[in-house]
Every structure is written in structure tokens, then in C-alpha cells.
Amino acid sequence: MTTTKTSAVGDTGSLQRLVRANDLQPLTGYSPTYIYELMAAGKFPKPIKLAGGRAVAWLESEIVAWQRDRIAAR
Q1: What's the CATH class of domain 7-72?
Q2: Which of 7, 27, 30, 44 is the most buried (most CB within 10 A)?
Q3: pTM score
């Protein structure tokens, strides 16, 4: 898995790693189509828009929290 070096400033002022769409499948095990279906149903974190308008990324902290929720739910 490649990690993106893009970061965002979180609520506490610290930088957070951003995860691009092509890195979501190895992290989640889900196809991009299914990830977007989960987002539409409110069951997966929404991405943030990056400069340029079309590019998006997810906060790694939100993906990790989503994974923890899935683990806790089993």
C-alpha cells in the first residue's frame, strides 16, 4: 500500500494523514463502488475535497474510527 503525503489540520491543530481513493480498498477490503454505496447510506465517512475540485481524500483518523466501530460491532 502506498501512503499519500497529503495532510490536513485537525481540530487540535495537528496534521492528519489523508487517504486517497486508490488506498481505500487495501484498508477496507471493499471495492470503490461498495465504498460509495456505504457513503450514500451514511455508513462510511465522507471524503473532503482537495484543490482542483475533482480530487477527494478521506481523513485517516475517520477511516481508523470506522474500522474500530466495525470491530466493536462483531
Answers
A1: mainly alpha
A2: 44
A3: 0.76
C-alpha 59, offset from chain centre: 5
| Under 8 Å between Cβ of 17 and 4 | yes
pLDDT tens for residues 27-37?
Answer: 999 999 999 99
**Residue 62: CB partners within 8 Å, gap ≥ 6?**
45
Query: How far is residue 51's CA from residue 12's CA, in Å, rounded to a whole number?
Result: 22
22: Cα separation from own chain's centroid: 10
Residue position matching grid coordinates 454505496: 37
Dist CA 38 CA 6 (whole Å): 24
